[in-house]
Amino acid sequence: MNGAAKRIQDEDQGSGISPLFNQSLAKAFGILEAFSLDRRSMNLPELAAITGLTKSAVQRLTFTLESLGYLRKDPISKRYSVTPRTLELGMRYTTTSSLIEIASPYLLDLNIKCGETVNLSEPDGLNMIFVSSYPGRRQISVQLPVGSRFPIYCTAAGRAFLSGSTGEMVDAVMGASQIRSYTPNTILDSAEIVRMIEDARTAGFAFANSEFYRGDINIAAPVMGSDGRAIAAVGASVPVTRWTFESACADIAPQVTEAAQTISSLFAPRRPA
Q1: What would the pLDDT profile of 211-220 be if each residue is shown by its tens digit?
Q2: Is 132 exposed, middle or buried (0-12, 13-18, 19+ CB in 10 A)?
């Protein structure tokens, strides 16, 4: 069940969602959210199974989304897929976000200095989402596009974000996360992850050594908002073919931390003259 479908289920079960919550709109987003790398096209029964909606509801919603240009229907297979118009939804965020606008020159500068892939990510529930990315000059093993999401608990950006958050936030995220292994290096001990987050508070940066993707070393530092709590994370991704974990922490971490601190300073409340 995808995110929108879960919210619909919560509403049906009376879990406290506001009466202003529009189920029809949520169901439409549930259809769009159902598509993924593993589900590039689906027919009505498949969409109904993924979203938890009835086939008749799915039929109405897909017809509407097709009419609006967000879905296309193959005339032979009768399978639906998303259209390029869906990109507009994400692009509206990247072009209107003040955080991205403020951070962009510093991310580019970091990218030029270190020569490796640099990302800005923001939290969304139990995940972090890439909202801006500058690829490295040399070939890398992992390149995730803007819009990619990944778990907070096993990534440097997620741990960096939590290092700038309250203890209550750390407990909430760790308590709700489904800890599982993505690679042989993924740390599965919640207590150890919490210790790493606490260490990141002291060091100013967090790390993940091939925990989400094999051969990918991540270094990240939190971007702090005007209230002194993390709102995002600046990260750098380097391959083990060019870097050791120790050299990444020694050379990349100070640059990432400096960029994150500079961006954070632009959100700090101004003192009256």
Answers
A1: 998 889 999 9
A2: buried
Q: Tell me the one-letter amino acid at 32.
A: L
Task: State the CB neighbour count (10 A cutoff) for residue 249.
Answer: 17
Contact present, 108 and 134 (Cβ < 8 Å): yes
pTM above 0.90, yes or no: no
Residues of the chain with pLDDT under 50: 4, 8, 11, 13-14
Separation of alpha carbons 154 and 203, rounded Å: 18
Q: From the CA atom positions of the chain, what is the Rg in Å?
A: 20
Q: What is the 3-state secondary structure (H, E, C) of 107-134?
A: HHHHHHHHCCEEEEEEEECCEEEEEEEE
DSSP 68-82: HTSEEE-TTT--EEE
How far apart are alpha carbons 34 and 6 in whole angstroms? 12
Give yes or no for a contact between 97 and 67, defined as CB atoms under 8 angstroms apart.
no
Residue with tokens 């002194």: 228
pLDDT tens by residue, 4-45: 455 545 545 445 667 788 888 999 999 999 998 889 999 999
The two structure tokens encoding residue 151? 């778990």
If DSSP codes are grouped into helix, strand and coil, which group holds residue 163? helix
**Cβ contact 132:104 at 8 Å:** yes
- CA dist 38 and 202 (Å) reads 40
Which pLDDT belongs to residue 94? 85
Distance between CA 59 and CA 74 in Å, rounded? Answer: 14
